[in-house]
Amino acid sequence: MNDNSKVVIALLAGLAAGAALGILFAPEKGSETRDKLTESLKNLGDSIRDTAAAEIDNLVGLKDKIVDNIKTKINGAEVEYQDDLEHA
């Protein structure tokens, strides 16, 4: 996970913690407080899931680039080897 993702996750966690504390100390009925807290935690979960999905997509793209790079190098080495065999 890169530094930007860590910052985003830390920011989201801090926002959720601040919202939860604000809700807990607000002068409202318990049921309203629980509903707000539930909604805040659901939103945090959604944000984390979206961030994780984006990071997974990034990793898949990186894997594809690496595999393509390795295949290209292997094919180049095969061609070079065949040329060496023909000229030997």
What share of the residues lie within helices?
Answer: over 70%
Shape: rod-shaped
Poorly predicted sequence stretches spanning 5 or more consecutive residues: none
Average pLDDT confidence is: 84
Please outline the major beta sheet: none
Number of DSSP helices?
A: 2
Strand content: under 5%
What's the end-to-end separation, in Å?
Answer: 49 Å
Rg over CA atoms, rounded to whole Å, is: 25 Å
Question: Quick one: how many beta strands?
Answer: 0
SSE topology string: HH
Q: How would you classify the helix and strand content by structural class?
A: mainly alpha
Characterise this structure:
This protein has helices at residues 3-24, 30-87. The longest helix is centred in the middle third of the chain and has 58 residues, at 30-87. The chain has 88 residues and is mostly helical. It is built from 2 helices and no strands. It is 91% helix and 0% strand.
Q: What's the topology here?
A:
Layout: H1 3-24, H2 30-87
Can you summarize this structure?
By secondary structure, the chain is mainly alpha-helical. It has helices spanning 3-24, 30-87.
Relevant terms:
mainly alpha
